Each structure stands twice: as C-alpha cells, then as structure tokens.
Amino acid sequence: VQLQASGGGLVQPGGSLKLSCVVSGSAFRPNDMGWYRQAPGKQREFVADISYGGRTNYAESVKGRFIISRDNAKTTVYLQMNSLKPEDTAVYYCDAQYGNIEYWGQGTQVTVSS
Fold first, then answer.
1. pLDDT tens-digit profile of 48-72?
2. Nearest to residue 5, comparing CAs of 45, 37, 39?
3. How far apart are alpha carbons 107 and 90 in whole angstroms?
C-alpha cells in the first residue's frame, strides 16, 4: 500500500491550501484516513480523520478552519485548510488504516508566512 500526498506550499497568513492524498496498491479500501502534522522540534500531532462512512474528527486547533473529506471511491482524502496561521506550519502526513495496520504517506510541507 502506498500513499502519495500533495498540495503543500507557501501561503500567507489567512490564506488557504488544499492537500490531497491518494492511496494505491490494495484491492480494498481503507477504513479511516486522516492527516497528522509535525512542526520542527515538535512531536507529530493529530489534525483530522474521516471514517469510511464519512464521520469526521478534528483537533481543537483546526476546528472551524480545516475540512477533511474523501472522494466517492474512498481512495483519496483531502484537507481543505482555510484561515491559515503561522502555527499551522509543519510537514503534513496522511495515513490510512486497514484494520489494525496503519500506512503513512511521505509528507508534504506547508509553510504559512508573510
């Protein structure tokens, strides 16, 4: 199973970015898919996840600003990030869970700076 994340970049405070993550290499669809992030010098932290049925969870720090979604084929997860702040700067990783097995993407850099 491979996960390919994309969509990161440099954006000004208050701006928006949309991340995408495509899973491939399995005939099955993942159960939960989600996003985590890791800022320099900090531990990786949960951002948001979405179940196969569409139930979503968000970290308090991103509620009301980020929206997670999945495509109809259930193989791509998106993270729409609005009202970005400098503290959102991090490498963003996507993950996909197949039962008790968790797979990770390679990460995409998001930098929020003026």
1. 999 999 999 999 999 999 999 999 8
2. 37
3. 9
